[in-house]
Amino acid sequence: MTTAVLEKLAKQIAKRKIRVVDLTQTLKPSTAVIQLPPAFAQSSPFSISQISRYDDKGPAWYWNNISCGEHTGTHFDAPIHWVSGKDYQDGATDTIDVQRFVAPACVIDCSKEAAKDEKFLLTPKHILAWEKKHGKIPKGSWVLMRTDWSKRTDPSAFLNMKEDGPHVPGPNVDAMRFLTQERDVNGWGVEAVGTDAGQAHSFEPAFPAHNLMHGANRFGLASLCNLDQLPATGAVIFAAPLKIEQGSGSPLRVLALVDER
Fold first, then answer.
1. Half-sphere exposure of 91 toward its Cβ, with a 13 Å CA cutoff?
2. What is the full per-residue pLDDT of the chain (261 aa) written as tens digits?
């Protein structure tokens, strides 16, 4: 039975009855990187340098050296990324059960709210309203917050730094508690540079998408795009980070399978 299901899936993908949607931003030197206060160490931006390109340094091949922080561009946050998840033996990119890299997605559309309020916060009330329309969030799902923030192609507009810090939409504390404790989700994903709201440094606890999600051995996905191409339910997400020894995360190619019928 399993073989038949997998064969049918492969055929449906080949026939484009199941569409593969790329949820990944292109990595390049201009890719926006999260900015921390000057007192803290900073993540390096993405850089690329050519090794050879069909020339005297390598006549038949083209390749590059690349360098970046683990949390650059579209990236995966592992539980050990945050102090609340530091003790999980299966919490690094090389120790996570690979079964968890494939999971269904629930997409909560907050694009209209984010367009009106750049500091919009998702609350349990919004989640329950979504569930009333689309059904209860299944255990083990990715919950993705669509804001259309990824359509901000200018890095400064994407980071949206103000005098009091970034003005970026995200979840509030109660939303993260609800999703980890009441819905037992696989992880949380957003279109912004990080999984928390821009003003989450002032929350209690601070940075709940990191503190509570990773403290519950859940994952994060940041800098996603094309969430407007996904249905509210029914898509399946493939999000496998690089297998870095004791990695706290990594850039990755996030793909979604969507039924076109």
1. 19
2. 578 999 999 999 999 999 999 999 999 999 999 999 999 999 999 999 999 999 999 999 999 999 999 999 999 999 999 999 999 999 999 999 999 999 999 999 999 999 999 999 999 999 999 999 999 999 999 999 999 999 999 999 999 999 999 999 999 999 999 999 999 999 999 999 999 999 999 999 999 999 999 999 999 999 999 999 999 999 999 999 999 999 999 999 999 999 987
Q: At 3, list the tokens.
A: 């073989």
Stated pTM of the model: 0.96
Confirm if 126 and 145 have CB atoms less than 8 A apart.
no
Distances (CA, A) of 5 to 8, 12, 86, 141: 5, 11, 38, 21
Catalytic residue among 81, 126, 210, 214: 81
Q: Is 81 one of the annotated active-site residues of the chain?
A: yes
Strands 219-222, 75-77: pairing is antiparallel
Query: Tell me, what DSSP letter sits at residue 182?
Result: I
